[in-house]
Amino acid sequence: MSKEKRLIPYKVLEIMEKANEKVPEGVELIKAPEIWEQGNYGEGVVIAVIDTGIDKEHPDLKERIIDGRDFTETGDYHDDNGHGTHVSGTILATLNDVGVVGVAPKASILALKALNGKGQGDINWINGALEYAINWKGPQGEKVSVISLSLGGPPDDKEHQLIQKAIQNDILVVCAAGNGGDGRHDTDELDYPGAYSEVVEVGAVDLSRNLADFSNTNDEIDLVAPGVDILSTYPGSKYAKLSGTSMATPHVSGAAALLKIISEKEFGRKLTEAELYAQLVKNTEDLGISKKAQGNGMLNLSMVTHSAQNEMRRTIEASKTMVVE
């Protein structure tokens, strides 16, 4: 292989044969269910996941797959590792009375396999997947709105250029910060593509809202999301609990789908990548720790509801003032 990308080291905590349908704690923590109806459950938004592929027959995922492609020269985008299936479930595991539910359970996934069963990928595989996602069109003319990347390695000029091209095409690129944290907020740990300034770099917190001790810290962190003990889908129609910034990233990717729908209804037009990024940042909560650790704060989608309620109150108050006058 030439310059290589890899799965950012993560922990598999538990694998289970089945799960009674539930909203995982991470999805609850970011308050995604509070805006499901407003965000139409993410329906119509396509998210490209560049990873180890996907379990194409998983009951929680098979209805969400709009397309897929293999870049690892195996000829099939089926997941032979587990990581890609887990990430995908957090983004959009469907509502079907079994298993788990994702952040945006009616969104669609473009599953691009660019890492092999060992979690390794030639940079050319990653770049091929990026270019494919940028240019992809679905059966009804759909385009990718979000690219989710839970992988890392050294910087690469071509990769950086493709990410810039994605953003120019109004595609939000969401990346894991990395799991090389040393527990100190004043030191920088860098993994790419997460550390490129143009992407949304995601750090991890645990389910008690504390920064995960493994989460990278640096000046480019944009926000944090749950990444410890995260329950999601796993190959073989199973379920598993994993930990890592890889698990935090899909919470943000799914949230972007919901926010895109809500905001485009409000504005009456398509959002630019910068505007969708602004909506993400607007829906964060300061945890009172270093900006190098949390960026703008923890993803909290209940802010959408509060914002709508405040807007309604302002409208009512304005109308009352008009009546008095």
Describe this structure in words.
The chain is of the alpha/beta class and 325 residues long. It has one domain: Rossmann fold (3-Layer(aba) Sandwich), CATH 3.40.50. The chain has helices at residues 25-29, 83-92, 123-135, 157-168, 245-267, 273-282, 291-294, 302-324, and strands at residues 4-6, 11-16, 46-51, 65-70, 108-113, 120-122, 144-149, 172-176, 200-205, 221-226, 230-234, 238-243, 284-285, 298-299. The strands form 4 sheets. A 7-stranded parallel β-sheet has the order 4-5-3-7-8-9-10, with helices on both faces. Strands 2-12-11 form a 3-stranded antiparallel β-sheet. The longest helix is centred in the C-terminal third of the chain and has 23 residues, at 245-267.
